[in-house]
Amino acid sequence: MPNAHIVVVGGGIAGAMTALHLQRRGEQVTLIDRWEPGHSRAASTDYNRVIRAISGRDEFYTRWARDSRQRWLELQAESGQNLMYECGALILATEGHCDWEDGTTDTFDKVGVPYYRYSRADIQSRFPQFRVPDIAYALFEPQAGLLMAHRCVITTISLFKAAGGVVERGRMTTDASERPRLDGKPVEADVIIVAPGAWMADLFPRTIKPISNVLGINVLYTSTPDGSDAFDMANMPCWIDHGQGSFGIPSSEGSGVKAAVVIPNTPIDLDNDERLIERQSMNRTRSYIKHRLPGLVGERVVDSKFNQVILTPDTHFIVDYHPEHENVLLVGGCSGHLFKHAPVFGDFVAGVAMRDYGTADRFKIAGRRKLSPKESPSGR
Ligand SMILES: Cc1cc2nc3c(=O)[nH]c(=O)nc-3n(C[C@H](O)[C@H](O)[C@H](O)COP(=O)(O)OP(=O)(O)OC[C@H]3O[C@@H](n4cnc5c(N)ncnc54)[C@H](O)[C@@H]3O)c2cc1C
Fold first, then answer.
1. How many CB atoms lie within 10 A of CB 250?
2. How confident is the model at residue 378 (pLDDT cuts 50, 70, 90)?
3. Which residue ranges have their beta carbon within 6 Å of ligand 1?
4. Above 80 in pLDDT, residue 83?
5. CATH topology classification for 1-83+145-212+312-380
6. CATH topology of domain 84-144+214-309
7. Do residues 64 and 107 lie in contact, with contact meaning Cβ atoms separated by under 8 Å?
8. Where are the domains of the chain?
9. Which of 71, 339, 341 to mutate to test the pocket of ligand 1 (most atoms within 8 A of CB)?
């Protein structure tokens, strides 16, 4: 298919990275979004996202994350933008619930990911920001870190445009057969790649809605203590705290400390909700901070984000052709972990779009099932 005309719908990190890869392969790509790429409703837009190879027993995502790390570093060198900071990531294994962390250790040994295993005393001496009486041990992945998410999206879009790609504003809809339409007409292109994030469920009510769940997530940024740099990324890693249903990112470029406490089943109206966080979330975050990060007690919330994830039953992404439209490729299924993988994901999707190979079994729309916490890459 030389010089195929490709439409990519959705300018979040999944669509933008796919568009960049295809444009660089010499295709003619138009990227369409309802709003300006980088807008605040998109899941990809926030100060930062964690990049880590830590994925329990799942070797596939462990390898993808390692490969993506390398590619983010290359994009950083090419663009001259600060996209990634290698502050490391710490997983805290709660006493009596260490399956996922034990699995990660085995996978790291197999794949060759550098890590350290810390006892409770080690954690306290290396990272005194954390109070860990309930923690059995921690794994520290030194080459993990954070991606400056908004900047990553904007930089990807800039590279795409510099390669000759076109960005347009528009709202895709679907007809009764779920065929994509723009301005009331069927979308015309050799391949139509639809990467609309959580909006995919409503756009494809028969194909995607039954295998997805869209949830809101409140994220708060808490001020670092006046006059102290202990909670800056220079001195503190990202962390994952499954036992407390939490994860977090140290202050990066002045963001404040992101301590995210996931409140399950928070509903969200993607188009109509004001993106303001709830009082319940403030209270939950404050009690988490009191438990785990006592040095932040009394500090003020300085920023917040109310955003969404689309979860598949097995938390695997979606990269598959629509069952009834052979040139419509559905792409995304975030499941809370797509951002870090975006450079490899976009490259992979480009190959599927150009029929270099078929998709991976795990990314097929059909045959989804809920995984046990032991099998799941997220450990939940
Ligand atoms: C709070 C939170 C924390 C997270 N933490 C991490 C993390 O630490 N590490 C990690 O790897 N991942 C993380 N994730 C997941 C990651 O952010 C997402 O998986 C990723 O950003 C999804 O990108 P996307 O491009 O699929 O969707 P989006 O970024 O939502 O982009 C979809 C785009 O499609 C556009 N669109 C939608 N419908 C249409 C339409 N009809 N017509 C035209 N355009 C349309 C939208 O406007 C939007 O710009 C987190 C997510 C959240 C919410």
1. 27
2. confident
3. 9-15, 32-35, 42-44, 49-50, 171-172, 195-199, 203, 217, 219, 307-309, 332, 334, 336-340
4. yes
5. FAD/NAD(P)-binding domain (3.50.50)
6. D-Amino Acid Oxidase; Chain A, domain 2 (3.30.9)
7. no
8. 1-83+145-212+312-380, 84-144+214-309
9. 339
Q: What element of type H or E holds 115?
A: none
Average pLDDT of the chain is: 96
Distance between CA atoms of residues 108 and 369, nearest Å = 26
Choose which residue among 90, 337, 378 to substitute to test ligand 1 binding: the one with the highest number of ligand atoms within 8 A of its C-beta.
337
What is the Cα–Cα distance from 64 to 107, expressed in whole angstroms?
A: 13
Tokens encoding 137: 């041990």
CA dihedral 113, 119, 121, 123 (to 10 degrees): 30
Question: 370 Cβ partners below 8 Å, 6+ apart?
Answer: 313, 314
- The reported pTM is 0.98
Find the 260 Cα to ligand 1 centroid distance in Å.
17
Residue 114 has a CB neighbour count (10 Å cut-off) of 11
Tokens linked to 295:
């040095």
Cβ atoms of residues 178 and 207 within 8 Å: yes
pLDDT tens digits, 318-328: 999 999 999 99
Q: What is the pLDDT of residues 256-273, one digit of tens each?
A: 999 988 888 899 999 999
Exposed, middle or buried: residue 182 (CB in 10 Å: 0-12, 13-18, 19+)? middle
What the block records as the tokens of 218 is 């409140």
